[in-house]
Amino acid sequence: MVTKGLEMVKCGVVALYFLWLISNRFGFVVSHGDINEVHIPQQFQRTSYHFHPLKNWMNDPNGPMYYKGIYHLFYQHNPNGAVFDSKIVWGHAVSRDLINWAHLNHALEPTHPFDINGCWSGSVSFLHNNKPVILYTGLDSSFQQVQNLAIPSNFSDPFLEIWTKSSHNPIIVPPNGVERHRFRDPTTAWPGPDGGWRIAIGGQTSYGGAAMLYGSEDFVHWYQSRFPLYSSRDSGNWECPDFYPVKLNGSNGVDFLNGSRVGVVKYVMKASLNSHDYYTLGSYVPEKEKFTSDSGDGFDLRGTNLGLRYDYGKFYASKTFYDSSQKRRILWGWVNESDSREDNIKKGWAGLQVIPRKIWLSKTGRQLIQWPVKEVEKLRTNHFSLYNKELRGRSTMKVLGGSASQVDTEVSFEFPYLEEAERVDTRWFDLDPQLLCSKRDASVNGRVGPFGLLVLASNDLSEHTAIFFHVLKAHNRYVVLMCSDQSRSSFREGVDKTTYGAFVDIDPRHEKISLRTLVDRSIVESFGAKGKTCITSRVYPTLAVDDDARLYAFNNGTQSVVISSLKVWKMSNAQIV
Ligand code: DQQ
């Protein structure tokens, strides 16, 4: 009883402190005028509910965690400009709901010989008694990449505002056979069979890109295991590896420390390389300290044995954490700009994080499912919906006449004329979905598709981003393509307008196709088939902005499709201060 009372008092104090922090910072901003005027160069492309620093450059999410009722996000940040600079710091922000954020002072800045040229990416691990520590990569005085430890100065501060670097730093230096400029981004630690700790570090070795395995008893003295946790012969340097268990049944998350028992979980091995985040699913036998992929060691066309991608658009250097408060695993990922360095300098900002996504294993066990955290739904306003509406061949339908520059949309389609789908001669696994999406873009007349949404569309449709599906038949098997076509997204020159595409693992004979799309001025996050296939894009419309942005549904196939349900919400702004 007494303990419960004390707990409640503690929670109350934490809540008050948080309120004070938010109101103090927010109050400061509003007392000096509109937040946009104070901190942010006025830009109509600036997002309103995606996480970003108040100005300048951001890349990788680092060390996300939940601690004493507060979510923390650290991130790679250049406080001096809107461009990447290797002498980067760890920005730090806190939140109660993963959507509204208050920025704190930088957690880590280059200060010592072991990180004087930059505090690069890393992770948070919870040691015994639930004590968080940071492992990060430092660029030392000779630009060698070494691993360092930082510890909160005050564990009872839920905001963990001050971090002290260990006097033992650097605690790991590049081993023989590893390039000293390619040895970085330590993972969150997990317990080894001997009661010690294990981590993986990304890099380039003589046997290819790898997640190198390290062990330690005290978190300070580390030894390298003979074999990597996983590696890939020809893939080049591995950045930001992530390794974690997922439950075989259900969408709850699981941590190494709570219930990752054999027969109950599978393991995810993820690495960032060549601008994409790849993963594979498999098993891990702690006693053998070996991860084995379910798909064997077969290499795909891109020379990697990590066959799947989290997101088939712009999404990189991601990191997950286990949210003990809601028993879920959450994924953060960095979304770079699609315009030039010069544009970023003019804008005064660059880089976003996706809306954090809950992540779990699909029922088939073949892939992961991602879905925006439910907290984002608090921003939904002005609901519009329609049901059972036929979308005839070659037609377009305006869904939102008013401003659609910030919306959340959920739509599902049925196709009564599936058997009319176009045939392709190639077997499905020889098809390149991104190429198919570029060749059969949104304007091409197919049969069952292309159909989907036109977001950030101008009134005359001359500007729009199309997110759509196309059903094809390859050797008696239906193949569902999901595409994001940016080719008409902006009249601006010099912007990357690559079309993205991926397969959706559903059987359209038995399932509807659903699409959820989050639009926030210059970012479009799309989730096909309830989160099986995800595509994120950056776009910079010039006409379809603010009150002039519209939302349409379209069908450029010859066959009708039916919108079985469509729901749209306008989204209000998040408080990011
Ligand atoms: N970004 C960091 C590195 C990491 C890369 C530097 C991935 O630690 O490998 O900002 O985007």
TrEMBL record:
InterPro entries: ConA-like_dom_sf (IPR013320), Fructan_Metab_Enzymes (IPR050551), Glyco_hydro_32 (IPR001362), Glyco_hydro_32_AS (IPR018053), Glyco_hydro_32_C (IPR013189), Glyco_hydro_32_N (IPR013148), Glyco_hydro_beta-prop_sf (IPR023296). One of its GO terms (molecular function) is hydrolase activity, hydrolyzing O-glycosyl compounds. GO terms for biological process: carbohydrate metabolic process. Residues 375-570 form the Glycosyl hydrolase family 32 C-terminal domain. Residues 50-372 form the Glycosyl hydrolase family 32 N-terminal domain. The keyword Electron transport does not apply. Keywords: Glycosidase, Hydrolase. The keyword Translocase does not apply. Belongs to the glycosyl hydrolase 32 family. This is Beta-fructofuranosidase, insoluble isoenzyme CWINV3-like isoform X1.
